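ok trying again, last paste got cut off:
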Amino acid sequence: MLFTAKLSDMPVEAESRVIIRFQDCDPLMHLNNSKYFDYFFNAREDQVSKLYGFSFEAMFRELRTSWVVYQHQIAYVRPARISEWVRITSRVIYYNEDTMVTEYFMTNDLRTELKTVLWTTSKHISIASGQRVPHPKEVMDYLGATCVPGLDFPNLHFNDRIHAIKQELAAGANA
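nice, full thing came through this time. structure:
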């Protein structure tokens, strides 16, 4: 069983609170650019396990499939600094029969300052052949339940999305 949560109980957005570690920072006390990926991917793995009861290992074992990264698009808006508490949000913003786009963003702890936005495009592959394969029904149902509704991804521009996230954060701060 890939998911233990019911589809109706699956939130669209997941959030984690983490501290920026000394070992991950450069001499200017900023999070090293390559470390953002570790923070995002570790947060997502924890989030989907907790919220959806999903395990990448179970997908690998049961379906003999996995997602592999095809492309990243990242914007470093403001630096994350040593010992700073930040929030990492992740959500699926697009999917089709064999592709998934996950959006990640990092903010300060109060969610008033955007630090980084990342889009990761992943392809669903067979581990036996290494070739793309369609998502099975169970995965398509999960993606349908957790994908952000109302986004026209094929016509969405990354920089416009950064602006929209900043507006979301400003609206939340003013609420």
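cool. The chain has a mean pLDDT of 94. The chain has four helices and five strands.
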